[in-house]
Design a protein that fits this description.
The strands form six sheets. The protein has a five-stranded parallel β-sheet, sandwiched between helices. The protein has a four-stranded antiparallel β-sheet with strand order 8-11-19-12. The protein is 24% helix and 19% strand. The chain has helices at residues 21-35, 50-63, 73-76, 79-94, 130-141, 179-183, 236-244, 253-256, 269-283, 292-300, and strands at residues 12-15, 41-42, 66-71, 99-104, 118-120, 187-193, 196-202, 205-208, 211-215, 220-224, 227-230, 287-288, 339-341, 347-349, 367-373, 381-384, 400-403, 412-414, 417-418. It is of the alpha/beta class and 424 residues long. A hairpin with a 5-residue loop joins strand 13 (339-341) and strand 14 (347-349). The chain contains ten helices and 19 strands. It folds into two domains: 12-141, Toll/interleukin-1 receptor homology (TIR) domain (Rossmann fold); 179-418, paralog of FGE (formylglycine-generating enzyme).
């Protein structure tokens, strides 16, 4: 038997409950035999003990591309198995875990939140034999298998390259993607999910090159790799695709639907990360929230400027409290030469609010969630950018705010980056 080379070898993590060892052992042996390499599959049958096992699980999960949970009534009830499933889903959201699937060892009730993932089970809910289950699970993992459903590898696109959808089909309905958004570079697609056509919208991206920039008010140097960030915050039109696919409506949704080209608001940090994970599934590209550092570099460039356009506030470049507009404005409104009449009756000629990397709406309009925790001791997440209800000082590129990830607020939205997962 020829041993597969290390660069083609699938790296699989098998989660299970020890009461199912007989089935699991046979499954893993069959999986390793078919792959031709024992190291391809990580599986603990020795019960290493809490401290050592926890460290090994954390290490192995981070190194594996594919996750298989073997389910039974005892496995479904196991805290260990559920913790491992949660970790795998988080890694999948971040782009490092390529596939997740569930092998049924004994008939059990599948948790509803897991129902969208691949299951290896007979139509009547009875399990396959361990050997047959291993063969079917591997068919999902191997790209060359005829029945494979593995998505394209989640790698960051190179600079200037827009993420391409895995499957292009007829464009999104015209009433779901306003012409104005299309003219700004938003592209609508449909894809088939469980025999249903699902719409999604890919935003235009801006390249942020690798290198250092000056961060925070103290302007200390931080170096980042290259990445791409959405030119605009996520719009109501984009989020509406998510809602039509089955996700919960935000607060005030019917009102928001009247402004498809405005930033979506009243979404929690959890809502924002769920949307990013959903877009990963649709496109095969590594969408996620920006880190706090990524957001700030996109806003101020490398020279430590106060605002995206320079060091002095200008109400003709952003939607803040000073304008008196009193609500969100359509994304991309602040372009040079555009005429606007403020609520006071004053007519103004707007100027560009874009950052050095041509990213727009980074000052005012809506607060934007970031991936980053406010500090290591809490779950609180950092918000950046200020909103239409905040003044010039809050709209500075270095200004930080914080909130619990469950909070929803009509001043808060988000934007995405398309980049490799954050290391560490």
């Amino acid at each position: 038997m020829t041993t597969p080379s290390s660069d083609t070898l699938p790296r699989i993590f098998v989660s299970h409950n020890h009461q199912d060892n007989a089935y699991c052992r046979e499954f893993v042996l069959a999986l390793r035999k078919e792959i031709g390499n024992d190291e391809a599959v990580w599986y603990d049958e020795d019960n290493l003990g809490w401290g050592k096992l926890r460290r090994e699980i954390d290490r192995e999960l981070a190194q594996r591309q594919h996750f298989i949970a073997i389910l039974s009534p005892t496995a479904v009830a196991s805290d260990w198995v559920n913790d491992e499933i949660d970790a795998a889903i988080e890694l999948r959201r971040r782009g490092s875990m390529q596939t997740i699937q569930f092998v049924i060892a004994l008939p059990c009730e599948m948790p509803p939140l897991l129902s969208n993932y691949k299951r290896v089970v007979l139509p009547d809910g009875q399990p396959f034999s361990a050997v047959e289950a291993a063969h079917k699970a591997l068919a999902v993992i191997r790209p060359t298998a005829p029945t494979s459903t593995i998505p394209a590898p989640l790698v960051a696109p190179t600079p200037t390259q827009q993420p391409q959808p895995r499957l292009q089909m007829p464009s999104i309905a015209s009433n779901h993607l306003p012409q104005r958004l299309a003219s700004l570079g938003f592209t609508g697609y449909t894809t088939q999910v469980n025999d249903k056509l699902v719409e999604y919208i890919v935003p235009p991206l801006c390249d942020v090159p690798a290198g250092p920039f000056l961060m925070d008010d103290d302007k200390h140097s931080v170096t980042l790799p290259a990445y791409q960030i959405a030119r605009y915050p996520v719009t109501v039109a984009e989020y509406a695709c998510f809602v039509r696919a089955g996700y919960a409506e935000p607060v005030g949704w019917q009102t928001q639907l009247g402004n498809l080209d405005h930033p979506v608001v009243s979404v929690s940090w959890h809502d924002a990360t769920a949307y990013a994970a959903w877009l990963v599934e649709r496109t095969g590209q590594p969408w996620r929230l920006p880190s706090e550092a990524e957001w700030e570099k996109a806003a101020r460039g490398s020279d430590g400027r106060e605002y995206p356009w320079g060091n002095h506030f200008d109400q003709n470049r952003c939607n803040t409290h000073e304008t008196g507009i009193g609500g969100t404005t359509p994304v991309g409104s602040y372009v040079a030469g555009r005429q606007i009449i403020f609520p006071t009756g004053e007519r103004q000629t707007l100027q560009s609010g874009a950052s050095p990397y041509e990213v727009e709406d980074l000052a005012g309009n809506v607060w934007e969630w970031t991936e980053s925790r406010y500090d290591n001791s809490t779950e609180n997440r950092v918000l950046r950018g200020g909103s239409w209800n905040d003044d010039a000082g809050v709209a500075r590129a270095a200004y930080r705010d914080v909130n619990l990830p469950v909070v929803v607020d009509d001043l808060v939205g988000f934007r995405l980056v398309c980049a490799a997962p954050i290391s560490g």
